[in-house]
Amino acid sequence: MIAHSFQGAVFGPAQRMHGATYVVDLELRREALDADGIVVDIGLATQVLRETLAVLNFQNLDEMPEFKGRNTTTEFLARVIFDHIAVRIAAGALGAQALPTAQSAGLRQMKVTLHESHVAWASYEGPLPV
Length: 130
Fold this sequence. Notes:
Elements: E1 2-4, E2 18-20, E3 23-30, H1 42-54, E4 59-60, H2 74-90, E5 107-115, E6 121-127
């Protein structure tokens, strides 16, 4: 749950302060299952996602210095979450077997989707750095 406003006529009434509630999906991909037969430890993935979202939850994004002067669209927020989780993956937060390396079949891609409703959502996806 966040509050924010947008700049620009294209956003119409959303230029005024308003709230948004998202359901967030995290999709992690790898080329082959690890030795335990999984893509990633779902418990660790859930924990990392919760910790990432906690920084944004119940915040007015217009007041957060890192978003000053930015339109914090659903697409933009999907990218922000993607980038934060990618850093956590690279730091080993999902375990060593999840680390993408040139020699192992660690995590290779990620997709973050923010659902505003059953008809309105946006995603950001891309490769994870090796």
